[in-house]
Amino acid sequence: MNKDILLSELNYKAVRSSGAGGQNVNKVSSKVVLSFDLENSNGLNENEKNYLKEKLASRLTQDFILILNCDEDRSQVKNKSIVTKRFIGIIEKGLTKPKIRRATKATRASKERRLKTKKTISITKQNRKKPDL
């Protein structure tokens, strides 16, 4: 993954936003929409593209385009930086492969501890019973 190439491939679009800003909202396009074409990206190799297609399947359109919105701030510049950071985070998280879980056995000491606690609990429950006369 080459971040510089990925950042140069991003398409930004400013749109009118709802939310804070009062009458200013009607005049200023502060919401930023980022779109990234995963299929035609030069910053990712084929393996990375295929892996991201699987991991980000719910976020991608049918044409494998990732679309992110940001209208958190009244400033278009801040929204642009926020959505760019969010994009980089999504791509990095999507490319991290999960650790392989190796099955392990319970240790002898842990088995003995479990049996010991079971025994003490059963004894306390037996002591609660009414005595047989």
Give a description of the structure.
This protein has four helices and three strands. It has 133 residues and is of the alpha+beta class. It has a domain at 3-95: 2-Layer Sandwich (Double Stranded RNA Binding Domain), CATH 3.30.160. Strands 1-2-3 form a three-stranded antiparallel β-sheet, with helices on one face. The longest helix has 21 residues, at 108-128. It is elongated and about 90 Å long. The protein starts with a helix and ends in a 5-residue tail after the last helix. The model has no long low-confidence stretch (mean pLDDT 89).
Q: Could you give a quick summary of the protein structure above?
A:
With 133 residues, the protein is α+β, with helices and mostly antiparallel strands. The chain is built from four helices and three strands.
